[in-house]
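Good morning C.,

I know you're traveling, so I'll keep this short. The sequence:
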Amino acid sequence: MNKQPYAEPWRIKMVEPLKILNKEQRAAKIKEAQYNLFSLDAEDVYIDLITDSGTNAMSDRQWSALMLGDESYAGSRSFLRMKKTIQELLGFEYIMPTHQGRAAENVLFSAMLKAQDVVPGNAHFDTTKGHIEFRHATAVDCTIDEASDMDSQLPFKGNVDIAKLKACISQHGAQKIPFVVLTVTCNTGGGQPVSMANIKAVSEVCKQHKIPLIFDSARFAENAYFIKIREEGYQDKSIKEIVKQMFSYADGMTMSAKKDAIVNMGGFIGLRSEEIYRQCCTFSIMFEGYITYGGMSGRDMEALAAGLMESTEFDYLQARISQVKYLGDEITKLGIPIVKPAGGHAIYVDAKSFFPQIPQTQYPAQVLGVALYVEAGVRGVEIGTVLADRDPETRVERIPKMELLRLAIPRRVYTNNHMDIVAWALGQIWAKREDYRGLKIKYEAPIMRHFTATFEAL
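The tokens, ready to paste straight into the viewer:
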């Protein structure tokens, strides 16, 4: 008997027209933007895969929730509803809203981090590393070695190497480590998940040394989905049950709700320690706003609460992650190298193998991103040497093991027909890949340069 085809568990209620420039117009636009994809006007992009952060399509329930927003400055109903949802779903007693994830990092790190500290983790993302290095502390990557093996089908390539973590603690001393950051899923490592067994093991090491464990939780629901389908013993558990167990091992969390809460703006901190919470209150009031709104409107808190419940349903996650896998499969059919297996929110193309004639100091992933925009109006983002930035002390350029173009898929926004265009465009570039040359940086900021750097063609 033939298997029934799969279809998304939702239907489309509203559409947004897209403007499509021709190839000559796109070439002119990216040149005007000095080859930085962030500098393009969004209306000049056909398929926008620069990020899945805040670019998602909210549901009818989330739009309805917006109308319930209580905009009271202090103690609004919307904050209390969001707080209750987070407490029930994730298990943290102390909740502090922020306007987005990097704001949550800013508030929490201001309370917990000082100069010369060391923060181990699994391939810290750019804003996390930026907040650490801005405070003259050091981020130490303790990811397993298999994470940099593009072709490895290891199911949990976001895992922390426990031996590396222990060695880091032994080398620097627990007193120099204010917390460990565990990113679920691991964005920089290819959107790869962390297993429940690894989460538990990291937690045990942290508890042994009395070091708090903090989750970077932007894509926690996607991580829970992978645990359910890949890790033995979790197939019969619900996503919400898995999520509750995941966070039971953490002492705190930061969250960019613009990802797995499926909203356009928002974030929060979750904590078990009242002492750390009180310290964060001071920085929240200084940087974000009063502690019950933290840079968020009441209507956004309502949509966030609704989105958290939707994103932790299996049917939604199956549709979301299946589309990511579909794009990965279509690109792989063309012989184009990507990080395998496909991650939770994005496909990562191996630009170093794509353009072997371009050294990493000439930014092959940025070259591929520019080429993809010119070819079909598709905008991705470089996760490579530009993002790796310079060493904050020596100012020497850091060369990462992987040179990737990330194609992050917004939730409930594009169809698989759009994914076919992305794969087709990459195939067109692949066929003439030997013709491409590198880029040179003209301007770069002293930290997190990839957002605003300008380039010229070599």
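Safe travels,
E.
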